[in-house]
Amino acid sequence: MFYLEPLVLPEEENFTDRYLKLSKNLFSLGFARDGENIELLAQDKDMNYQQIPLSLNEKILRIIWYEQKFERRGLRTVDGKKICIISPGEWNLDEGPDFKSAEIRFGEKIISGDIEVDLKASDWKKHQHNCDEKYNQVILHVFFLNNRKEEKIARKANQEYAERVELRGALREDYLPNPEDMENYPSRAYLKRGNCGKKISVHSYPLIEKLLLWAGAGRFLLKTERFNQRLARLSFDQLLYEGVMEGLGYKANREPMLTLARLLPLEKIKSYVEDFPLEEKIYLLETLYFYLSGLLPEEKYFSSSSCPETKIYLEKLWTILKNYLKFLPTPFHLSRWVFKGVRPANFPLRRLSGISHFLNRHWQGVKEGFFLSFYKKIKMANSINELKKIFFQPGEGYFANHSQFSQKKSKKVYALIGEERVSAILVNTVFPLYYLYALRENDLSTQKIIYSFYHSLKRINVNHIAKLMAYRLFGAEKIRQFPIESEQKQQGLLQIFQDFCETRISACGQCFFPQIFDLSIGEIIK
Questions:
Q1: pLDDT (mean) for 419-438
Q2: For 417, which DSSP code?
Q3: Which of 17, 193, 343, 406 is within CB 3.0–4.6 Å of 197 for a Cys-Cys bond?
Q4: Where are the domains of the chain?
């Protein structure tokens, strides 16, 4: 039923939300694994899933619970007990509840036990946790939507009960985790085929390829929507600036980079740099970033430095800084930066030098309109490689061959913002943000240009979560027959994993995704 000859599907010229609608329908119908009546599930869909944001799924809700990204003050159980979360517990990679060894204070009593997280209160029975002994140690059932208000507690197989808490209304404004953060959570290198992969044959690869492209487009549209939500507080200029800064932090230093972009916003930079001599602007920009990041050494450091190059450079930066100290906010502490496991070429000082040179090179655009200046360049670019050159920053200045303030320097000159980093910034910030602007302006031609660039972008690097998802779908023995050569396909694998999959292989039995392969082509593409 999944594959029909001949398979003819039109090529997209723009981003489609077909995958988002398909995945939402799978979740809302549930496919009655436990024998529930389809009519009841349809009613459940109408009453409940319309109240759950499209961007929220069970996995994201677990991250929200683990990171405690909700208002905890005044939190109460469904039956009114005041609770205090001492520890959210540890991720469980095996069968059973989502978190083990949590500590919760109910009133004056502290209880240790497990936590189960679901989208809806009704999922406790729907997933048959109420008759599964592995859930007997659950002390709190956490969910987004309470669609069983008459059930104040969650009854367990041992006839004891767990308290319940609804998080709807308590989520913070920035509750959605960054998609890249999903990769930081526990994973195991399971290379077996999942239940989805067991339904796939070589004959169905053409439609699987289309599904991955749709999922990659869906992931892109979700990123666009996240930017749209932030526009209520920030300008397009600041959003672009923050996105580039965040991208320069990689995984390890994304958070301090974003904090720095907010501590030193683009408008402040313009006011500091406006009347500074043109040939000296780069040094002022570096001074501002190095000082506020807490990475600029104290004067006593370079006064005793044995490296003439470093001493001269630091003296210049400190001479500039003394004229601005009274205007600058308090810098944050060096301890916020991560160096362990980071390649020297990616150290924060090099990336901050990179953004300094980048802004200096595009200073006319920064002055006249940072965001719109690049919008024109995107429209005029003839290829993805031409577009990359706009954001690429070659090695210049002191940090072209240094990774920190020291005598040690490399013989090779490294780019301050290299091609791989540029590609990641394009995918995660530039393309979604400019697509959002094109949507607002009803600029269909630019929407198509951005889709064309996104669609043609080669895979940036091998993402281990995407690789895991590919093995789940195709198995180790078939993986070479289905190359993931484009970034759009890799993004599709990441989105499918985020929506449906688990790091623990045992969760395959609870997954809705294999049901896609029981649908006809007409049902999939409608």
A1: 96
A2: B
A3: 193
A4: 56-175, 231-456
